[in-house]
User: What shape does this take?
Amino acid sequence: MREKILTFIEKNSRIDLNELAIVLGVDVSTVVNELEAMEKEHIICGYHTLIDWDKAGIEKVSALIEVRVTPQRGMGFDKVAERIYNYPEVNSVYLISGGFDLMVTLEGKTLREVSKFVSEKLSALDTVLSTKTNFILKKYKDHGTVMTAPTKDERIMMF
Assistant: This one.
């Protein structure tokens, strides 16, 4: 049942718990108890709202920063990742495969603000060997949600 609950709330964390209980064929107290248990076990780590900042008229710059690091003896990448994720500007840090070791995501008000963070804070860490910053220019789909209206084919049909 946990997998079913997680699947539903991952798509819509605001689902009515009575409605979820009906869909699952259990009483609402069972759903509430499962959710509370999964929160205590840190299976459920938080509830987030996906916002289209462009439509809200608020300027935000998002960046994906690939980072190559020197792993710490006996701790691998964990200690380096911890140093990075403790910066309040950082949204997420992932260990990745490929030419870089970590993927860091962050948001700022301007390109300059993001660039300043990368050059003055991230690149300045003694364990960071190199970085590659990729700015997000447009979001088409984020966390499973389509962010743009489908394009209409405006070509004239020829016979």
